[in-house]
């Protein structure tokens, strides 16, 4: 039985998306306790920004190597190992006694997280047909947004009731158990029913015994306009959103609008609702009009204008307008799943892993830079009041979003569906 005709593929899909749902929550959950960490460990804002960035730095730095290795060796064990490392890092974070352990724990989480999305994309490519791929990416994006949503009011309530350590410890244990579940779903059961009889690359190697050298492939990809378009798109759409809500969104609501922690979490939740809607709706609309570029350019225009309006209001727009803008920014983040539809449409399946990693690197370089730079701006204007610091800080996501818009305009439209039956079995 072929993977792409098996009903078991939906069990794989559910397990992989559930994993992504839980892991994504740990990208932004630390942002809920930024002020508590500053108090408990006597840390300045710039250090908190760096703490948020270190996870994304590891993530960004490993995207291309993991993409290369996953293309060559297959994605299953990388996804399992990444989930386990994320769980262990989260457990260590919950027990941290000093600043050094906090940084080490977030670094470990970043290393584990780096293996998740690239291999999720490769697993979906192997278990599902090309004409199903864009729609499933939209559902995967929605699962990620639900993970971000978990890290708002529900996680904030957990923290308010038990302190910040028990919620992170519980999540870490759950992730370790999920790693065991993934091993059963991706390795043991497919072997039992005859879906993993051959290694991922065997059918490809029989036809092309000479494998392209890694440096040659990277040189070709790095000189490809479409790859850079995907990189810049993700830089502007994902990094601004993840970088801000993962570090400064909750303190922003508390310091500028005098919100409680719970109310500030609800502000972030509005953005996450936008992201939940944005992923499937944008994917559906793209398929409906048979275009990736036009809806994606529109998404980037919305993101850029939203950040710019916040800045034009001095970082302090009316609350009702702020809710609308956060919803639109979240919608844009959800629509960023089109980045990987562009990759899947533009490159052969044997290169999807490395190009996905390259594009994802753009988003998380942005997510590394934004919290740290934002923190330095806040520290610089500390004596002028919170509103002034946030006013100038919002220049950063506006500029990053403009880079994303330029990336969207660089996309070369290709409406011809890429569907190579001989390659579809490669995971």
Model description:
- The longest helix has 29 residues, at about 45-75.
- The chain starts with 8 loop residues before the first helix and ends with a helix.
- It has about 425 residues and is mainly α.
- The protein is globular and about 65 Å long.
- It has 22 helices and no strands.
How many helices? The count is 22
Q: Quick one: how many beta strands?
A: 0
Assess the beta-strand content as a share of residues.
under 5%
Structural class: mainly alpha
Largest sheet: none
Q: Give the SSE order as H and E letters.
A: HHHHHHHHHHHHHHHHHHHHHH
| Gyration radius, rounded | 21 Å
Q: Separation of termini?
A: 16 Å
Shape: globular
The average pLDDT value, as a whole number, equals 82
Subcellular location: Cell membrane
InterPro entries: MFS, MFS_dom, MFS_trans_sf, OPA_Antiporter
Domain Major facilitator superfamily (MFS) profile: 12-416
Main location: membrane
State the gist of this model.
The protein has 427 residues and is an all-alpha fold. It has 22 helices and no strands.
Task: Break the fold down into its secondary structure elements and pairings.
Layout: H1 9-28, H2 34-41, H3 45-73, H4 76-94, H5 99-113, H6 116-127, H7 130-150, H8 153-162, H9 165-192, H10 202-207, H11 214-222, H12 225-237, H13 239-245, H14 249-256, H15 261-289, H16 293-312, H17 319-335, H18 338-346, H19 352-380, H20 386-393, H21 395-410, H22 421-424
Helix pairs in contact: 1-6, 1-7, 1-9, 3-5, 3-19, 4-5, 4-6, 4-9, 6-19, 7-15, 7-18, 12-18, 12-19, 12-21, 13-19, 13-21, 14-15, 15-17, 16-17, 16-21, 18-19, 19-20
